[in-house]
Hints:
Elements: H1 7-10, H2 57-78, H3 82-87, H4 89-98, E1 105-109, H5 115-120, H6 158-172, E2 178-183, H7 190-202, E3 206-212, H8 223-233, H9 235-249, H10 255-273, H11 277-281, E4 285-291, H12 295-307, E5 311-317, H13 325-329, H14 393-407, E6 411-415, H15 424-430, E7 435-437, H16 442-454, E8 458-464, H17 465-468, H18 472-480, E9 487-491, H19 508-513, E10 519-521, H20 526-537, E11 543-546, E12 569-572, E13 577-581, H21 585-597, E14 603-607, E15 610-612, H22 616-623, E16 628-636, H23 641-653, E17 664-669, H24 680-686, H25 691-704
Parallel strand pairs: 1-2, 2-3, 3-5, 4-5, 6-7, 6-8, 8-9, 9-11, 10-11, 13-14, 13-16, 16-17
Antiparallel strand pairs: 10-15, 12-14
Helix pairs in contact: 4-12, 6-7, 9-10, 14-15, 14-20, 16-18, 21-25, 22-23
Amino acid sequence: MVRRIHPSQRRARIRLTSDHSPDVIDASPYPESIAPVPTTPILPTLTGPAELRGLTEVQLEQLATEIRETIIATVATTGGHLGSSLGVVELTIALHRLLESPRDRIVWDTGHQAYPHKLLTGRFARFGTLRSLGGVGGFPRRSESEHDVFDGGHAGTGLSIGQGLATARDIRRSGERIAVVVGDAAITSGLSLEALNDIGQRKTQLLIVLNDNEMSISPTVGGLSKYLSHIKLSGTWQSSKNAYDELVGRIPAVGPTVKELSQRLRASVVNFAQDGRLFEDLGITYIGLVPGHDLKALLSTFQQALELKGPVIVHVRTQKGRGFRPAEADQIGFHGAALPPIALPSESAAAAEPEPPTSGHAPKPPRAMPTETMADDAAPASAVAKPAKNPNYTATFAKQLIEQARTDPRIVAITAGMPTGTGLSTFQAEFPARFIDVGIAEQHSVALATGLAMGGMRPVVALYSTFLQRAFDQTVHDVCQNDQPVLIAVDRAGLVGEDGTSHQGMFTLSAQRQLPNLVIASPKDEQELRSLLLTAFGQDRPFALHYPRDPGFGLAPVEPAAIPVGRGEVLRDGTDVLFVGFGPIVARAVEAVDLLAAEGWSIAVVNARFAKPLDRDLIVGQARGKRLVVTFEESVVTGGFGSGVLEALEEARLSDRTLRDVPVRIIGIPGEAFVDHGSVADLRHVLRLDGQGLAAQVRETLASIGATEPARSTPEPADDPEPAVVAT
């Protein structure tokens, strides 16, 4: 039976004790006598967060353990962001116990720490489908639940979303409460700082929970900071200072001046001894530090912070990977979606203290590409051993970049908070003086690269395609308008899989095609990537090099050679149809050729290599005499590579009559909808971008133009003297 607590017992008085270190707040909202530990699982029975308000302290602690057990067991199979989610279990329970979601709104920034939130909001039964096709998403998704406020995925967006929700609430004069949970790394993004400035200036009623897992926020100054946090949370302090300000403000002539001086003095005293001065200076009440795994302290602090006027930021100290010893020890490795193998604890072992494996004492081989510090879209982890994959394109890129940097001292590598995911951590190890990590500031990274290029350096900015979207203006205004030799390495170009709509790298190619001065290239395989990287450094102009998150084909290394800009290559000759591909999808187009060749079709294949400038002469020459031209790209088809081929052929048709009856089919990612989460293989199958799907789309196109059978080079003999008729 669930024991319910009377509301009067939930309200706590904050008291100082010697049980905790002097830099945190201690609180105890529960009576001395509590119910025995329940033995019946709680998490499977929860239908929504409102039920948390009927649980006892012991039941809440049991629930926290069950949440951690569920997350660890699930992520061991599906992959996902383990460490960040394990660190916010108590924090999530406290917020959902106090707030009335979905009426009250909880915004998760970045969103990869929202697994406990998902489990508490009715998704326990489906949680095993995490990040799989048609399953539960790895980030908040409004289509999944009314408790998910917005579709997150990029760091730094939460405060702006929360400010908008709070402003709308104030305009409507409704009473819902807004809370934003923001990580200590995301708080440093430019967008977050801009939002904090606006929130403080407008005095927006908003609770900001700063989840500090010691990745970037400095510790507090000590016991006096804790004492001042207690003072600011007290109703007496709030009411007395407001009453004093109103009183002195009414003094004739000098009242406003005395009030301003008083406020400055109070701020100086508080800020002198307390961490968080930046937030106080911006007009946001700062409370902290609060122990992030102490439910008593969290509940009491959040409850009283929600009653304060204006914006309040509660600084919560958490441990990344809490409850799973390997994740606690390796916070970077166990952050991202691609994780080290997870050995699950036995059923009898406590989830908070899993025992190390009793067998397999040999050390694990080092991971060539560990996950990055912020987010990752690599393949899911598994406790089951799998065959080793070929080095991926990112690893090949990083290795070749290091080789070229050894002979070219002008090369500087830049990333935006993603040194490991982009492979640049290996560059950093060899050339620390020529490596720059600007944090989550993609806009700054591209603008910085422009200045470096103007100073005679050869900067390389390595960003995920989905995050490069943030720096579009800098790409246009700084790099391309100034025509500077900046190499933009577009990692994760194309489908990335399980992280879903916010992370698919499907829009960058179309966005970049319109920009003057920019060369856009993509390799058909990992060895061609090395040659294109060499090509890029031979140019004195902007260069965008796109490559996917896929493993390579395991090709034997060859000495890279510069490729003339805008030069494609013919991979196969044919007479019926022309295939023109851009990027690694070329290999799947060749698979489709083999399938169609078995049916008698003769197909030529061109590897374009460059989307801008196109090898127009090669493509137009190969298109002559063909019954169909088909283009292939793993990018949105609207304004993409295929559109460029079509534009080139349309221009050529004006003067070349032989091309006027050659139709063009553009195959890629449809532009009518975002692509959801699922494995890359599943998504390619659904979108018909695997070999079988490409062949099927070509068959349908041939049928639609009336080309029902291949042309024959030698007509079959007829039964009568009439000449044979060749299908057209």
